Amino acid sequence: MSASKSSVSMDQHEVDVIIVGAGFGGLYSIYKLRELGFRVQAFDAAPSVGGTWFWNRYPGARCDVESLQYSFSFSEQLQAEWRWTERYAAQSEILRYLEHVADRFDLRPYIQLNTRVKSACFNEATGRWDIQTDDDKRWSAAFCVMATGPLSQPQLPDIPAIATFEGRAFHTSRWPEEQVDFTGQRVGVIGTGSTGVQLIPALAESAKEVVVFQRTPNFVVPAVNRALKDNELEFWRKHYPQIRHDERFSRTGVWDPLRGTRSAMEFNDAEREYLYRAAWDRGGFGFQATFPDLLTNMEANKTAADFVRARIREAVKDPETAEALCPKDYPFAAKRLCVYSGYYETFNKPNVRLVDLRREPIKRVTPQGVTTDKSDIPLDVLVFATGFDALTGALKNIDIRGRKDKSLRTLWSDGPVSYLGLCVAGFPNLFMLSGPGSPAALSNAVVTIEHHVDLVARCLNDLRTKGMTHIEATGEAQREWCDEVRALADQTLMTQAKSWYNRPPQEGKPRIFVPFVGGVGVYRERCDDIITSGYEGFDLYAHGVEAMRAAAQTATPSACIIAGE
Ligand code: N01
What we know:
Layout lengths: L11 E9 L3 H12 L4 E4 L8 H4 L20 H6 L9 H14 L6 E2 L4 E7 L4 E6 L4 E9 L21 E4 L14 E5 L3 H11 L4 E6 L5 E2 L8 H19 L20 H14 L15 H18 L3 H7 L12 E2 L3 H4 L5 E5 L5 E5 L2 E4 L3 E3 L2 E4 L8 H4 L2 E3 L6 H4 L18 E3 L12 H22 L3 E4 L1 H16 L11 E2 L8 E2 L6 H13 L5 E4 L1 H12 L11
Parallel strand pairs: 1-2, 1-6, 2-3, 4-17, 6-18, 7-16, 8-9, 8-16, 9-12, 10-11
Antiparallel strand pairs: 4-5, 5-6, 13-14, 14-15, 19-22, 20-21
Helix pairs in contact: 1-13, 13-15
This protein binds 3-acetylpyridine adenine dinucleotide.
The site of 3-acetylpyridine adenine dinucleotide (N01) has 24 residues, from α5.
Enzyme class: oxidoreductase
Family: Belongs to the FAD-binding monooxygenase family.
EC number: 1.14.13.92
């Protein structure tokens, strides 16, 4: 980048932008920034591109957002030539798609695989980021784009003696590439979130016994997956421009023409039942959009919760198991809704057993299995579907230091702060894709990723055009954004469940609610306003100019005076 005046040492490789991650976000960043003429280098710890879709290859893994929407929109040619085979794509199909994207747009030369970024430190003397990778190479870049994914750092449960288990043990997000055979095996599964509800029915097909350890039951609505037909694909191709536009300005990044617009309480019981039934039979997240007030009005919410609980009791033959599977102590969809067909019916199989950890807590793992406070449960395999150190884990895993050696890890020790979920005050020229404080966690991830990458690209281009080199969120804008994110969340029922995006208050620490609940479209309009108003809430400055001014004033040529300080 012409404006970046670096004083990089000889053993440092120099580029304009370092991109961390080669999943949806990393791949599109490479494409977009290279298109604008920036020199980029991407890294990924995995041996392949694909990000989350490389790692999460557990049996049953499938996207629960429809494939025709969970896909890139930036290239009409790509959109026209790729043929999705099912309404919800399996992990292997999405991985093939991302590999195709990497090849089709010739992105691989800019990606170094099998390489983890260890640290990224802002060098105040050069005004650039110094990056260290685990192959002991050092890089210098004007900008960093963290395409690390909100759900990429696996989390093991804090169960005593977990390492003593002598059978095979897997975390769903670090599943081996080779096929795992469960025939004749007794398999224990800990965790019943979106991952667990996909995995458990798949395991039940071949395992001798599946023991499901459930701490909190989830609301699971049917997906109703099916093969896509030619005429359906034709319809989408014809209407894609409008559909993609609607996705971008929708609430969740999903086009849903059947989304309800009137309160659940405007209908009588029979009408509501009819509308819920229709949404249930169509399958997918649309059920949550039957009425717009399900997450803001407890009375309305209870009608949806009652409907789903009735379906669970219908589906599960053993009444005790059915009751244990019914969520009762938090509002419907306050935890992320799970979407999968046949989950509840799986518990009718003779080889599947539910252990309700609320009535029978796990005491410890043993070499032979799991001991609860009622029994010893022998197992050959233990699977942890226990989720992620969500939203911040992957970023905290890298030693990121901003101005004055400020550590992101330390700054976020009591929960993340950001401006727009995109930037952090004190960390100039560092961008997070799908960061905490953005709507990403509550949206169609591909739509929010494309939006963030487009924002970053626009910003870098604007800086170049204006003769600027640096952008940094102000502390004040960051505080106001975090307050707004909290205040919006308080208007919903989503704070009434513990989830990977809502940590209730604990030990004197305040509640942390991470995503922006205002919706994808509102967020987009807000970002557009910020940019057109001249990057409100950001300081933009030219490092070289400031350095020269500082040199004249202080006779220290390497000094860097940051605007706004
Ligand atoms: O993880 P989770 P996930 N003892 O955190 C339980 C996305 N995703 O991997 O609820 C016993 O939701 C924990 O119990 P509790 C999607 O955004 C997308 O399932 O804390 N249990 C919970 O049941 C999703 O939301 C797709 O009481 C313990 C489970 O582990 C996100 O990833 C597919 C425990 C963790 O559930 C995360 O989903 C799959 C303990 N000590 C996932 N600790 C798509 O289709 C934790 N648990 C796109």
